[in-house]
Specification:
The structure is a single chain. The chain is an alpha/beta fold and 322 residues long. The protein is built from nine helices and 15 strands. Helix 1 crosses helix 5.
Length: 322
Amino acid sequence: MILTMTDSGNIKPAQPDTILQAGRALQGGGLVAFPTETVYGLGADATNDRAVAAIFAAKQRLRFNPLIVHVLDLNAALQLVEFDPLSQRLAVQFWPGPFTLILKRRATCLVSLLVSAGLDTLAIRVPAHPVAQALLRAALCPIAAPSANVSGKISPTTAQHVAEELGGKVALILDGGSCAVGVESTVVQVSEGRAHLLRPGGITREQIEAITGAAMLADMGGPLRSPGQLESHYAPRLPLRLNALNAGQREAGLGFGASVPIGAAKICNLSVSGDLTEAAANLFAMLRALDKPEFTGIAVTSIPSHGLGEAINDRLARAANR
């Protein structure tokens, strides 16, 4: 049975009793929103076809867009997927954390094929957030969990963001505060011994290349293997204008460091000190804060492209591609 509520009253502080309640809801086929270090996830039992289908329905998500499966640790992942040597090195280095690997499903993998969009691979990661870890222990199953928002819109980094979009479609929203990383996980697939970057995220290109000893390769093309690869994604209602020096009279402005769009009607600064880690954590919340009907658009200043700036610019480019 899938439980639903009609308002945001299903936000509960993430405590042992509410985490157990959320685990039981997942076991019963329900949807639960929960915090991770990246963004809030919309979780379902990854082995339950109907529960996974409910994720796609709640998010209005295209069925060919795969989901990420969250597991407790590397040993749990080994039960579901086959690791090549480089993928296992990367998993040991970056799990738990904001890092997803695309790996071949084992013949015995019980995860619903809907999660993989019919592919023979699985997107899988081990979250670092203590609430996500506790929920995995309570649910006793792998959890399929894309971001807990309507597909293509701004990702949620607080429980209230989830309630505003999906509150009536989930059994429970576990409130673990604001997400520390603020952008989704990095997605990597290894092919013929080389790492390919499918989506930049919370683990930087530079961190990965320090482990692989080689430059990251681009996406291999073909069917979507992970979330975050659609050209239009993470979009506010208002149009975004990137690399803006000035703002129109009724445009809001998103700044970084000493650079802000001049003349903006309202300004949010991702990081006054120019810290890309802080900027990533603030990105989605500030886009939501500026996405208001009194403005005609959002002018965004230039963001450096190194480190977490690559993930920030990826999200902004997709959000601007309306």
